[in-house]
Amino acid sequence: MNKKEADNMVLYISLVLLVVFLFFGFVFTDELLNVTNVLFGVITHNLGWFYLVSVLGILIFCLGLAFSKYGKLRLGDEDDRPEYSNFSWFAMLFSAGMGIGLVFWGVAEPVYHYLQPPLGIEAASSESASKAFQYAFLHWGFHPWAIYAIVGLALAYVTFKKKKPCLISSTLEPLLGEKTKGIAGKLIDVLALVLTVIGVATSLGLGALQVNGGLKTLFGIPNTITVQIIIIVIITVLFLISSITGLDKGIKILSNTNIVIALLIMIFVLFTGPTVFIIDTFFVSLSAYLHNILPMSLALTPFSDDPWLGNWTIFYWAWWMSWGPFVGTFIARISKGRTVKEFIMGVIIIPALFCCLWFAVFGGTALHFEIIDKLSIAEAITGDVAVGLFVTLSHLPFGQAISFLATLLIVTFFVTSADSANFVVAMFSRNGDLNPDRKIKVVWGIVLSSMAIVLLLSGGLVAIRNVAIIMALPFVFILIMMCVSIFKAFKNET
């Protein structure tokens, strides 16, 4: 198999699989939802423990590497240094990794856990309020960023240290040897590409729902599937324009803009909302999260038939895994010259703490309004999860203006995530080319937006949840193999 045939194999197989999925989703939308519901139930019931144990193991492995003798290894040549400032690096990895989902769930998730807590805790109680933040911190803290870190670390190492193509299959070469250059390697790359498209499409669907929620709050535009499809089409045009301008212009500028707007909104809410309550919530919940991180990481429920774990924690682990190839590859692409320890600490610790602070500020404000001020935040969120942020902001000074700014933030996060994903998918389909051509970016941009539309038509959040968990299952095994491969490669370095 020559290089051109290998490139085309990954491209064409991936496109065929995704087009078949799109066709099935458009023509048999109800059937797609039913099938994914069945598979979702089977996986969460029988393999939920596997997701939990695997992700905890990846986190422990990453932190172990950072503080081992391998932490001094540089991702590149010894004289290489980072090409992006710490601020731009963090802004890009954060925007790619979580931006739009964090804005969507920052208010809604703590409120949901307060009303429908796990493990038999009394609903709408002080204990459920406390657990709400602990589990929000768990779902958006160290564990998901460890998934991104292990993929990004492996790819950065093989790309910049070993000068291999920036492909998932390349990371397994120390373990699988020459097999990664044949059919097995290409099938791994196909899986990573398809998983990336579906994983990112889930977040584009969420983004469309929340942009629609913001437009409904600001301008009274109805919350309908037609409006959401129009939003996706407009965003597609915007991110394709950004994608064509290249990494150093489009994505970098958008990412820096995202983080500045996000910080401004968060600071505004912190100081115009219940400031002392937010600060207390952050430190108390962070302490409880760190204290209970192991039991929460393995919080299985063998003695009850509680679906909460599958609907939340297992869904999140699968969602982050489905984003693993995309975000990990993108982080690797922007991390040349950093040491292993600098990379792991920068990718896991700092973003996780920022996410925890975000939930304390926005979720804390929402629950203060709900519990202390007796405002109907929970009722609004249970009616339409996409409007949670805007209902909360409406009770603050300049609520209309800050809601407009929040909608702008969602749009810029939306564009950045799609742009970054499009860049990575184009890389995967061009044998790891770090600068894929414009034509292939346009093709994949259309596929990404079409996939998001199919998921919305097939059942919205339920279909999104189901597909993410199903598609992530085979990638768990690749992540485990990646850990073994990295350790084997690092041993040979010293």
Structure, explained:
The model has no long low-confidence stretch (mean pLDDT 86). The chain starts with a helix and ends with a helix. It is globular, with a radius of gyration of 21 Å. The chain has 20 helices and no strands. Helix 4 (99-115) runs antiparallel to helix 5 (126-140), helix 4 (99-115) crosses helix 16 (377-383) and helix 14 (308-333) crosses helix 20 (461-493). The protein has helices at residues 3-27, 29-66, 86-97, 99-115, 126-140, 142-161, 168-171, 173-176, 183-219, 225-245, 247-272, 275-291, 293-297, 308-333, 340-372, 377-383, 388-393, 399-428, 438-457, 461-493. It is mainly α. The longest helix is centred in the first third of the chain and has 38 residues, at 29-66.
Which secondary structure elements does this structure contain, and how are they paired or packed?
Blueprint: H1 3-27, H2 29-66, H3 86-97, H4 99-115, H5 126-140, H6 142-161, H7 168-171, H8 173-176, H9 183-219, H10 225-245, H11 247-272, H12 275-291, H13 293-297, H14 308-333, H15 340-372, H16 377-383, H17 388-393, H18 399-428, H19 438-457, H20 461-493
**What portion of the residues fall into strands of 2 or more residues?**
under 5%
Structural class per helix/strand content? Answer: mainly alpha
| Oligomerization status of the protein chains | single chain
| Strand tally | 0
The overall pLDDT, averaged over residues, is 86
Query: Count of helices?
Result: 20
Roughly how many Å apart are the termini? 34 Å
Q: Could you say which overall geometry the principal axes of the C-alpha atoms support?
A: globular
Helix-strand pattern, N to C? HHHHHHHHHHHHHHHHHHHH
Please tell me how large the radius of gyration is: 21 Å
**Mind summarizing the main beta sheet?**
none
Q: Low-confidence spans: pLDDT under 50, at least 5 residues? A: none
Helix content: over 70%
